[in-house]
């Protein structure tokens, strides 16, 4: 693995962290599991992170197939994915925590579900459209077997990071407070917005080479 590949995987990891914003979702996790004992809360955290890893790995492996099935070019998907990331980024910079990823019906339904680790935590809060779009773009941009294995390893490392955050969520939320979490969310939104601009610029440059 050369230095360029390491940079690619690190960029993918940071982009995923910004797209998912697990720090901003921690208060949601704490509120959904506040009535549960610590062992049950840890079990839900494990379920959520495993589900996130499975969803994103499937998106990574099947992304190009889906694009081909619908006759969608990678550059068109880059532009659409970039617009979606920017939309999520604007919501994050305005201080909305997960409101763009979960509607009121999903919120009401999730309360009665026993397995909240899968819904709503893994889907749609963590492995939402922004994370899936980023994964498909990277899978199409770096299609070699070694790159795919590296991206899968990055997804697993990212899921493990989410698990660590969720295990420490009650203490972190208490330490940072709502103001601290809002600041981190806005910073992640800024990074995500910049990533969305890069996706759009690369897509438009390829779709309309005369503009470059």
Strand fraction equals under 5%
**Helix-strand topology string:** HHHHHHHHH
* Poorly predicted ranges: 97-101, 105-114
Helix content: over 70%
Regarding quaternary structure, what we see is single chain
Radius of gyration: 17 Å
Reported for the largest beta sheet, the result is: none
**Looking at the structure, what is the overall shape?**
globular
Number of helices: 9
Provide a descriptive summary of the structure in words:
The chain contains nine helices and no strands. It is mostly helical. The radius of gyration is 17 Å and the shape is globular. The relative contact order is 0.22.
In short:
This protein has 212 residues and is mainly α.
Topology:
Elements (H helix, E strand, L loop, with lengths): L2 H18 L1 H12 L4 H32 L4 H20 L10 H8 L5 H10 L2 H13 L3 H23 L1 H39 L5
């Amino acid at each position: 693995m050369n230095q360029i590949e390491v940079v690619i995987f690190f960029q993918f990891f940071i982009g995923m962290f910004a797209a998912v914003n697990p720090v901003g979702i921690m208060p949601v996790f704490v509120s959904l599991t506040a009535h549960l004992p610590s062992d049950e809360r840890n079990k839900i955290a494990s379920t959520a992170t495993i589900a996130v890893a499975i969803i994103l790995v499937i998106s990574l492996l099947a992304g190009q197939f889906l694009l081909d099935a619908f006759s969608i070019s990678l550059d068109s998907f880059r532009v659409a994915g970039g617009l979606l990331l920017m939309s999520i980024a604007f919501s994050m910079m305005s201080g909305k925590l997960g409101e763009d990823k979960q509607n009121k019906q999903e919120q009401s339904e999730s309360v009665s579900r026993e397995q909240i680790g899968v819904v709503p935590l893994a889907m749609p809060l963590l492995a939402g459209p922004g994370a899936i779009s980023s994964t498909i773009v990277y899978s199409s941009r770096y299609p070699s077997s070694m790159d795919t294995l590296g991206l899968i390893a990055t997804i697993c490392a990212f899921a493990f990071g989410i698990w660590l955050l969720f295990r420490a969520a009650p203490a972190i939320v208490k330490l940072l407070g709502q103001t601290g979490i809002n600041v981190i969310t806005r910073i992640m939104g800024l990074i995500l917005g910049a990533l969305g601009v890069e996706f759009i610029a690369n897509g438009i440059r390829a779709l309309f080479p005369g503009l470059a």
